[in-house]
Amino acid sequence: MNQAWKHFQEGTVEDLIDPNLMLHNYENIDIKSEFLRVLHTGLLCCQEIPSLRPSISKALQMLVNKDEILPAPTSPPFMDEKTMELNDRSENLSSSPVEYGNAASVASISQSIFYPR
């Protein structure tokens, strides 16, 4: 996500295209503009504020209707690499009696038992 946003901002989306896709076989299609439109729509769909994200039908319309001007996306969530870390292991180790070993996190579950009246 970070790389896609960076290349979108810099206008270098062609650097994200895998050269092994043999896109040179499709001479009649402007691959860069197609890829840019898909990436732009994808960035709109993963904006941090859900109300700014297009619906599925609107996103599909954005992909199909090439004449429609797409709005500028806002930065996606977790853009700061420092905040991409979900938890700090050192804090968890000192505050939890659980032995972590090599695990990155510990899953816990609660169970509710319901009795009939």
TrEMBL record:
Compositional bias of kind Basic and acidic residues: 79-91
InterPro entries according to UniProt: CR_Ser/Thr_kinase
A molecular-function term among this protein's GO annotations: ATP binding
Region (Disordered): 73-97
Keywords linked to the UniProt accession: ATP-binding, Kinase, Nucleotide-binding, Receptor, Transferase
Protein name: Cysteine-rich receptor-like protein kinase
Organism: Sesamum angustifolium
Lineage: Eukaryota, Viridiplantae, Streptophyta, Embryophyta, Tracheophyta
